[in-house]
Amino acid sequence: MLMAHPAVLANLLDEYETLTALGGERGSHEIRQRMDDVAYTLCVSTGTRDVDTALIAARFQLPGARPEDDSVLQPSGAIGRR
Q1: CA atoms in the 13 A half-sphere facing the CB of 9
Q2: pLDDT in tens, 16-67
């Protein structure tokens, strides 16, 4: 799987958090649309299907994340299997 550049992920995370702070889902049509667009881009960039998982995966891929702990990215029941 291709991985997004950490700077791209950091920008997407910052933008998503800003839109959330602006009231994202309760905000204007433009804010909701942009939030949907950023959520979609996060999902595509991290190979996930929902925004909550995409946020976790994006943070995990940023510099300083603990690469030895991938349990949050493993499907249920797959922990310990490699």
Answers
A1: 21
A2: 999 998 887 787 888 889 999 999 999 999 999 999 999 999 999 888 766 5
Q: List the structure tokens of 56.
A: 């976790």
Query: How far apart, in Å, are the Cα atoms of 62 and each of 16, 71, 73?
Result: 15, 16, 14
- Whether the Cβ atoms of residue 47 and residue 57 lie closer than 8 Å to each other: yes
Q: How far apart are CA 73 and CA 82, in angstroms?
A: 13
Q: pTM for this one? A: 0.73
Distance between CA atoms of residues 12 and 51, nearest Å: 12
Q: Which residues contact 23 (CB under 8 A, 6 or more apart)?
A: 31
Contacts of 37 (CB under 8 A, 6+ apart): none
Three-class SS of residue 62? Answer: coil
Per the structure block, which two tokens stand in for 79? Answer: 């922990």
